[in-house]
Write a structure and sequence with these properties.
Belongs to the RimP family. This protein is of the alpha+beta class. The chain contains three helices and nine strands; from the N terminus they run E-H-E-E-H-E-H-E-E-E-E-E.
C-alpha cells in the first residue's frame, strides 16, 4: 500500500487528506498494472494532488501513454468520488518516481538491476557500484574502479554483498551510455 510522501526536514507535517485519498486512488492504479508509490496533496495558491506510480516488478520503465491513460482514469474516479469537497479546484499530477529517487525498499533495488548506484553504507565511504542482484536481505554489487587513464574503459571489482540494514542511502547514477 502506498503512503503519503514523507515530509522533508523543513516541513512540519503533510496534509492528512493525502492518506484518505490512497484508498480512492489505489484500485485504479492497480487496475492499470502499476504500483502506487506515494500520494501528496500540496496546498498553495492552487491545490495540487501528486500521484507517483511505478511498476511493482521488472526493470521496464512506465511510458508516457500509460501515465496519460492513468491520469485520465484517476481524473474520472476523483470527479465521481466524494473527496476533496473542501477544495474548489485542484491540479492532478501523475508521474513516475524519476531516475534519481532514493532507493528505500527492496522492490526499488530490484527495479534497477544492472544500473549504476551510489550507495552510502553504515561503515566506510560511499561506493559507486553496478547492481548485480537483489536478495531478500541485501544486494550484490560490483564496485566501479576508476579508469587507469583517461579514455580507458571502467573496470569493476568482484561482486560483494551489502545487507539492506547496512545501507544508509542509495540512488541510481544517471549514465548516458553503458556497455558491459
Amino acid at each position: 500500500m502506498a503512503s503519503p510522501r514523507r515530509p522533508r526536514e523543513d516541513e512540519e507535517s503533510r496534509d492528512p487528506r493525502a492518506s484518505a485519498l490512497v484508498s480512492v486512488i489505489e484500485p485504479t492504479v492497480t487496475a492499470h498494472g502499476l504500483h502506487l508509490e506515494e500520494v501528496d496533496l500540496a496546498s498553495g495558491p492552487t491545490t495540487t494532488l501528486r500521484v507517483v506510480v511505478d511498476y511493482a516488478a521488472g526493470t521496464e520503465q512506465v511510458d508516457l501513454d500509460t501515465v496519460a491513460g492513468l491520469s485520465e482514469a484517476l481524473s474520472a474516479v476523483l470527479d465521481g468520488a466524494d473527496v476533496l469537497t473542501d477544495v474548489a479546484s485542484y491540479d492532478l499530477e501523475v508521474s513516475t518516481p524519476g531516475a534519481t529517487r532514493p532507493l528505500t525498499e527492496p522492490r526499488h533495488f530490484a527495479r534497477n538491476v544492472g544500473r549504476l548506484l551510489e550507495i552510502e553504507r553504515e561503515e566506510g565511504a560511499p561506493v559507486v557500484a553496478r547492481l548485480k542482484e537483489v536478495a531478500d536481505d541485501g544486494v550484490v554489487v560490483a564496485e566501479q574502479r576508476p579508469a587507469p587513464k583517461k579514455g580507458m574503459p571502467v573496470k569493476y571489482g568482484d561482486p560483494v554483498e551489502i545487507a539492506f540494514d547496512a545501507i544508509l542511502g542509495a540512488r541510481v547514477q544517471v549514465e548516458f551510455s553503458h556497455k558491459e
